[in-house]
Amino acid sequence: MKATVHRKAHFNAAHRLFRKEWTDAYNAEVFGKCSNPNYHGHNYELIVSVSGEINQQTGFVMDLKILKDIIYEEIEIPFDHKNLNLEVEEFKTLNPTAENISHVIWKKIKKRLDNNLKLEITLYETPRNFVTYTED
Amino acid sequence: MKATVHRKAHFNAAHRLFRKEWTDAYNAEVFGKCSNPNYHGHNYELIVSVSGEINQQTGFVMDLKILKDIIYEEIEIPFDHKNLNLEVEEFKTLNPTAENISHVIWKKIKKRLDNNLKLEITLYETPRNFVTYTED
Amino acid sequence: MKATVHRKAHFNAAHRLFRKEWTDAYNAEVFGKCSNPNYHGHNYELIVSVSGEINQQTGFVMDLKILKDIIYEEIEIPFDHKNLNLEVEEFKTLNPTAENISHVIWKKIKKRLDNNLKLEITLYETPRNFVTYTED
Amino acid sequence: MKATVHRKAHFNAAHRLFRKEWTDAYNAEVFGKCSNPNYHGHNYELIVSVSGEINQQTGFVMDLKILKDIIYEEIEIPFDHKNLNLEVEEFKTLNPTAENISHVIWKKIKKRLDNNLKLEITLYETPRNFVTYTED
Amino acid sequence: MKATVHRKAHFNAAHRLFRKEWTDAYNAEVFGKCSNPNYHGHNYELIVSVSGEINQQTGFVMDLKILKDIIYEEIEIPFDHKNLNLEVEEFKTLNPTAENISHVIWKKIKKRLDNNLKLEITLYETPRNFVTYTED
Amino acid sequence: MKATVHRKAHFNAAHRLFRKEWTDAYNAEVFGKCSNPNYHGHNYELIVSVSGEINQQTGFVMDLKILKDIIYEEIEIPFDHKNLNLEVEEFKTLNPTAENISHVIWKKIKKRLDNNLKLEITLYETPRNFVTYTED
Asked: What mean pLDDT do residues D114-136 have?
């Protein structure tokens, strides 16, 4: 008997879309105003979804208090009120698109979960633009 | 040509996380403040999702007025403004976690639907904690 | 490495549920107040979801600015502030249920996307009634 | 000891902005696509706010079950799934802008309330456009 | 130069509408299913609004981190995951309607604020029923 | 016969809370992580509220299409995808707290409105922190 539990969280951060390998002009051509060298920012809304068997003792797929703590340690502490490009190790060399941020979040949380649990990440960059990253 | 139709509903209820087989101390250890013996409560938001062929005559997967009535009879009448542990038969012996409530809702609605329709239940316990239960 | 990007949009339109092949009495019996001959209307909220590989150069599944423009041209221009039954070609002969509108939107956007991208449409007719249309 | 109680409701309707006294061309010039002769429509979201003394016996400004019934009788029954211009008496001669609809709703509910209660109406035509009508 | 700052918070609690001075039958007659002796519950959403001069040094009406801590200490700790009737001192003798809960919250936070600040409380019992309490 | 019309808009921007007159250490002490020298950012949600007489010809307090254009020119163009501290003239010498941003927005829109209209600004820095600025 399987189910998926979801936990919402959020963080506020600055970023710019930017590849070091490209000229400023080409970054601006591809990413437009999202590549502003002075940065812009978002209230990122995050949904972490964990699928697995419902434990017959607890009635939980996993304890959401534990998931909340994992999100806090892995995502909120390192990302909240930060400049993603300058202050988060992963994005010093990786363009912080919503797709790439979702993948990084997926990897950071995945390594904290039991192997039998499946993980999906949904990340809202704005209320109108969002991304889902899941495992195959 | 298949689609999924979704209908939102809600109910307000009291509950506590609790297993009779466990001591009060162990219930408190596992479930924390969610096991308060005096109960606490939630505005549960429910999404009922039904997948199937689009009927070429009506353009419906199923008539949402009928689904609305099924949800009202099976879920809102027995659950709304109730104490789930004390007043809903299924939870007298089953711990009312969001996972277990979703499964109970799934079973109650499933038996009212045509066999060729697939059912998924999403239940928000709070705006930040929610669960999805679907069939394999 | 795959992900899904989602873009929200909306349009306001009038419609009625109605099949020409049926008598007015039978339309009223099947569709109730949704078949009012004088029309009623909705603020349709639309989520367009596109799945595919994350491009290693851009970090995008697809550029959401381009998707936004496709939605504007294919859906917002022809549907917004229109009477769907009278003014949108597809619904002159097709009953504009949320299921059928989703399918029409799917076909109009699908033909504008690269072949390797998968498309899913979610359409809210009201905050409580919505539909998902996806490819097999 | 005063407070304000609020009750949300909604209705779906078709309308067009239009003054009979004006030519079609002038209506189109002033109201743009909102004046489409074939109508368009909205999911109107309504907040009814009633201010007054908290009754020391009940702890209520007024019983929200009663307010819910008044809204149902005065607004939802006559407005929901209707064409406001053609089927609602007040708008046969009054342009159904959000301002005017709010004023009509205010008058219809006001006459059902005790004289010592103050009434404010908030009407969302879309999630981005809304109006507040209150008494002086 | 004045402004109002708002901070949202929430708590989940059980309650019943009930006056000890009344018979059970009369409580049921006045409060209906909200008077269920086994309790029901809500996700209460709270908006605390503080008005005053914008400090020319900080640019703040008041530091929202401090307001967040006051709400946590005065409201979330004593109310969250509690049975309001049984476990919150104020409601042992006061009927916990949304109006009365708002007034209690107003008094608890007011005594923690500078005298020159004006306080307003908005409390959502459900997404459709809410109350505003303000000072004269 | 008066009413208030409201228009929602949004912009995404980077900022930091910071006063040049203060040392970095004192900025950090007062503003905490909001003073991060590398900036952070927000999806600012804006509600512009305009109060006045309902025009008996149009049924409008003011045409929301005109208000939408004013917001676009005065706020969205200069603020969206910008670093408020570095790229918006007003905040080169003014700390961009939500209170101060609201006041700047109020002044920029106010000068574009008819004198008989009253203006109120509501600015959401996050879904949980927001500010209202109004005239006396």
From this structure: 96
CATH code for E2-134?
3.30.479.10
Pairing of strands C2-15, C82-83: parallel
pLDDT tens-digit readout, A92-123? 999 999 999 999 999 999 999 999 999 999 99
Distance CA B57, CA C22 (A): 10
CA nearest to A85 within chain F: F38
Asked if F103 reaches chain E (Cβ–Cβ under 8 Å), the answer is: yes
Q: What percent of chain B has pLDDT over 90?
A: 99
Domain range list for chain F: 2-134
CB A119 within 8 A of CB A108: no
Q: Is the dihedral of CA D4, D5, D8, D13 positive or negative?
A: negative
Give the E window 47-86 contacts with F, CB below 8 Å. Answer: 49, 54, 57-61, 64-65
Distances in Å between the Cα of D80 and the Cα atoms of B89, C11, C15 are 37, 19, 13
Mutate to test the interface with D, among F4, F47, F117 (most CBs of D within 10 A): F4
Q: What is residue A135's predicted lDDT score, i.e. its pLDDT?
A: 82
pLDDT at D135: 82
Three-state SS at B124? strand
Instruction: Judge whether residue D66 has pLDDT over 80.
Output: yes
Give residue-wise pLDDT tens across range B63-104.
999 999 999 999 999 999 999 999 999 999 999 999 999 999
- CA pseudo-torsion sign C85, C89, C95, C96: negative
Q: Which residues in chain D have Cβ-Cβ distances shorter than 8 Å to F7?
A: 128-129
DSSP string of A59-76, one letter each residue: S-SS-HHHHHHHHIIIII
| Partners of chain D (3+ Cβ pairs below 8 A) | C, E, F
End-to-end Cα spacing for chain E:
21
Name the stretches of chain C with pLDDT < 50. Answer: none
- Note whether A39 contacts F15, CB cutoff 8 Å: no
Active-site choice (A34, A76, A87, A120): A34
* Residue D9: C-alpha distances to residues D12, D70, F11 (Å): 11, 11, 30
